[in-house]
Amino acid sequence: MIKSRLTLLVGALVLAGCSSDKAPTIAAVEPTAAEPQLQTTSNVTAPDTAFCSVALDAAAVQLDGFRKAYPDPTQIARSYEKNAARLVSDSDWTSGFVAGSFWYMYEHTQDPSWLATAEQWTVGLEQQKNNTGTHDIGFMMFPSYGNGLRLTGNASYEPILIQSADSLMTRYNATVGATRSWDHGPWAFPVIIDNMMNLELLYFASDSTGDQKYANAANSHSLTTLKNHFRADHSSYHVIDYDPATGAVTHKQTHQGIADDSAWARGQAWGLYGYTMAYRFSEDAQFLQQAQNIADFYLSHPNLPEDMVPYFDFDAPGNPEIVNSRDSSAASVTASALLELAAYAPEPQATRYHEAALAMLRSLASPAYSATNGENGHFLLMHATGRWQADDEVDAAINYADYYYLEALQRCASLNDK
Question: Minimal CA–CA distance to 339: which of 12, 1, 2?
Fold first, then answer.
């Protein structure tokens, strides 16, 4: 039986549809200090959840334009930069996020047209279930088929997810204790922090089949990453290279940040989300503690701006040669992770994480980051950073930024239903 992407949200289907072609005004809902707590397990208020629901209404308007602008599931809109859309095939690591965004639109609106769109874009990814050439099969298949199974119970989706997990398992090396990330570049056996996100597919497969080999591999990968990726301050490297024959660490670096010893913001977000998710499935206290360690590093960093949307690297403001690009994708992933972490952490940390997540979402929903309806290539968020060092998708709209923004809003909007 499938576990929800967030246990607190199972079955919470928001029925607030959006029939107008004019985006709702987000700023109309403001928090009030006097608002009573509506449940004892987290710091949830009615203005918070109402705000998130209104933001989802606005997203439905913008994404309706998106699905009309990009109608072909074989030409997936990955990003929008310099007034041009970047279209990719189903083999791209970002291919599942558009289908996943459509599933969140269906979850929020319950509109059959969003269901049909989500199903169409999900089915277009099926052949990727046999892709053994990438660790990102989790990114490709779980936002699409995973959300589809969660929301519809479509039994045909489950074996596709299990086959996808089998494909990911071919990349697991028991000597290293982790799954291999890239097959390109100078590395012998690279493991990137992003790979924590793909473990959800393995945990799901064990829950679904009862075969613990998948969860055992996911737990091993999490423990290996915990041992080798993190510094004393709980920030992480991006890439660790291993000797595949001995499992020894041969090199540590930050491939998408400013320097090997810097804190690449989205990398910190991947780790935070990954360990929170790993705790959800494993209930291993080490993983919960690590998620809190990462969250505390992130939220306490002196270079985190007041609006809670980080620079693409936490060390960027200290380097005069760097254009201090923000990364809305890092904020989206972090907000979603913090909302889940708040359900597991003790007080006062739980309240801190919840309030930080809502602050991030309010910033992302503001005109500073959310595009005007019909603009920004019909993507939701502006000012994401993909690969700064390659000058690729810098100050851009990127589909995974939108996906995790929607996930965070859905998590928030659904909390009062539990």
Answer: 12
* 178-237 residue pLDDT tens: 999 999 999 999 999 999 999 999 999 999 999 999 999 999 999 999 999 999 999 999
Does 211 qualify as catalytic in the annotation? no
DSSP state of 136: T
**How far apart, in Å, are the Cα atoms of 163 and each of 134, 157, 182, 339, 398?**
14, 10, 20, 30, 28
Report d(CA 9, CA 412) in Å as an integer: 9
Helical packing angle, 399-414 and 328-344, nearest 10°? 30
- Cβ contact 142:127 at 8 Å: no
User: What is the model's pTM?
Assistant: 0.90
The answer to whether residue 57 is catalytic is no
- From 48, 136, 166, 313, the catalytic residue: 136
Q: What share of the chain is helix, strand, coil (3-state, %, to 5)?
A: 50, 10, 35
Q: Is the distance from CB of 366 to CB of 58 less than 8 angstroms?
A: no
Contact 372, 65 (CB under 8 A): no
Residue recorded with tokens 């301050």: 233
Which structure tokens are listed for 63? Answer: 């994404």
Q: Report DSSP state, residue 326.
A: B
Point out the catalytic residue in the list 57, 166, 194, 402.
Answer: 194
* Under 8 Å between Cβ of 138 and 199: yes
Angstrom distances, CA of residue 267 to CA of 80, 129, 216, 377, 386: 22, 26, 24, 26, 11
Q: Give 181: exposed, middle or buried? Use CB within 10 Å, 0-12, 13-18, 19+.
A: buried
Token duo for residue 272: 């935070």
Which stretches of the chain score pLDDT less than 50?
1-42, 418
